[in-house]
Queue: 4 jobs
Job 1
Amino acid sequence: MTLLAAKGATNIEKMYINCEVGYFGIYPRWGRSNRKYSEDEPLKRAGRKVFRDCYSWLDAMKANDFGENGLDSGICAIQLSGKNFRDWFINRQEEKHEAVQKANETMKKEIRRLMSLTH
């Protein structure tokens, strides 16, 4: 993503990341068993991971395009594979496709929140 930012690749309309970028399970890590997790915690962790990995590109989108509109189009372009949310949607009533869409939206909301804290 840093290379995309350095090369000025800010005209990307869709970026589908078809791999697991980390483990964002529904279970707390060892040593944190008494911590209460919200239902959306794995999705927010995925958002933080994507934010860290894509920050330079998202920042370039904001600077080179149209400010907040460029940033928003950059965030909307990112789509994570359902593999990243497997544990989260296993017990959901929705269809897998709908659950993955909902998970991606929650992840993007977290990225927006983090980007608003940087500027």
Job 2
Amino acid sequence: MIAIVVLESTAKLVAAGLLAVYIGLVLMSYRLDGSGQTLRVSWRDPVRGLVRLCVWVGVKALVSIISIGRSLFTILTETSADVGEEYIRRRPHSALATFRSHFI
């Protein structure tokens, strides 16, 4: 029973270590090669080709996540500015004059 728990814990630790190495490979590949990384697979070494394929897929996924994040950030920034303008516009004129004298 204890051997099973130790084996499961060891398997989880090894999986976490492999995941950390994979994330490191993806980040370093993105940092060194950028988003235009080309897939280089050698059919003479299928294991290394599989690793390069996995890293290439990870880089493409990272590029997609960054692109979506930038788009969402742009939308949220514009929306926040619109909400701020609407809030300022709906305030009474006396409060608006006070606001402008302090900040503008």
Job 3
Amino acid sequence: MQKQTVGFGYGVLCDTLESQANEQGFTLGKHSEELEGCRQAAITLRFGVDLPDSMYDKILQRIQKRVVKYIKSAPQKNKVEKSNSTQQRKPKTA
């Protein structure tokens, strides 16, 4: 299996982690809300408390490890066209 590179932004103006994953063809599944809560908490700590940059970086590293742990390929959405076999056929006249 080949390695793929996936990028995430954790800043205030970034989209949610799930939407960032979806844009790249992945999903965080049932863990998306949990991880988004962690991201929001990190942002709150960053701007609400006098948190040193080194501590903020450690928090983001831990969140990133969890994202890598839970990320998986999003299921492919296959469009299935309805066939005309359900329509009634008119009898042929001779």
Job 4
Amino acid sequence: MLSKWFNKKVKTLPFNALIEKEAEEAELNIYSPTWKYIIKWQEERLIAERGKNDAPHHNSDQTAYIRGRISILKDLAELPKDAGRKRPGLMSRPSAETGE
């Protein structure tokens, strides 16, 4: 009688699908201690990167790299404003037709 329970095959999702499903269902709580920590870190890094960007001794590639980091740090702070916007999951690939 128990053999039917042990022989039953269970369909499982691949790990990537589990992460993506969890990310789609998650909500950003801007009042959480974790988010406050992230924003504090982001502000400190942004100040440091802006300081690096102001230094005169960087070549154009270094300056572009630093500006890219600054842009990413700014995007991080904008996450709460984008919370309602539908985005592809973390593990998804861009669509060939739309680029999204």
